[in-house]
Predict the structure.
Amino acid sequence: MVESKKTDKEFEISIIIPTYNKFPQNLFTLISLQNQSFDLSKVEVLLIDDGSTDETREIMNHHSFSFDLKYIDCGRNIGRAAARNRGVKEAKGKVLIFLDAEIMVRPNFLMIHYNYHRQNKNVVVTGIMFIKRLYSVLFKDFSDYQLEECYELTNACPDLKAKVKDFQLAQGRKPLINRADIYNQTYETLTLPTHYEVFYQRILLDNYGYKLKNYRIPWQLFGTGHVSVSKETMHRVGLFSEYPGYGWDDCEMGYRLYKNGAQYLTDPRLISYHQEHPVATHNTDESKKNYYRFQETYRSVDCMIISLTFLPVPFNLHEVNLILINYQKLCETHPNDFMLTKKVFREMLRDIGKKCSNKEALKSLIPTYLTMEQMNKLKKELEIIRQKKEFTKFLECFDRLEKL
């Protein structure tokens, strides 16, 4: 079922927001979209209700917006990827923006995304490197750590302290912000940096810049919490793969877009805010299983290489990229040589994904079927590669995997 308060027409931008029991955070997200410098008559927002049992449905009855709001009721919980696909099928905008239901944005959000797509129709604009944490609502299911963080943030404001006291007495759900706070951006007093902001700056942006020049695994930045792509570009590669559970359906889409020639970039002005909520404990396990589904779909080194971040002592993304560049250079400059080394490397990467999916220890990655003769050949190939002194990152990686 699709409900809309306005007549159908074409739009410049379609914002696709799957939601599952995220009220009132999804309402705060919609209010932040109302507070945009962009012409909202050219914008539609598709709110895809993935089987919510909270007050999400009532948003259409009690709130109005300057953009065209379409409420799409999935009827049951079909999963985030399938919900996004419902949105993609309904979207009429030239630019598709994927946003999580609990991500609030700044007033320049739409203008920044739109201008990049006017300049280049084959670009992916990702904002996941600049997402901060925001305590907009108190939940009884927050961890002790989350509660302590939130109490500390509210301690200096009498009005917020009063709301915290109400929450502590009732132990239900207590909003800490309202529409005025969103319009005035006073909610920023309740924000904290994410642990990966500094990581992304140091590991990726300092090495590759905002245009991610020579970064060969940008597809892993296709986070549907905050990313945009033109409808034309996305239609060339199709819909999201509907993996079960949590994770990697978005990166799989990012990989297809990248292999189809999409150019990735980001912009430091694209700061957005993840409204904190209770965290499911099973997400990590589901994510590893879905990563394995992804790698088995393609079995190419440029997608399996990301498994190096799963090691007990992981390589960071900059190191992973350098290893990939080394490997690709080895293949380009010596297409008919070192075939056993290349094969073993691919199989070790594949085995990491398989073992992580099955919760097995990451050890004994060298294929057990290798004969003594093949092991000697592998050793000789590695010695010759070592003498060339231009594949040090690849060799460092190979040696570490071999020793596990």
Remarks:
- The chain has two domains: 2-128+208-267, 299-403.
- Residues 300 and 361 are 23 Å apart (CA to CA).
- Residues 339-357 form the longest helix (19 residues).
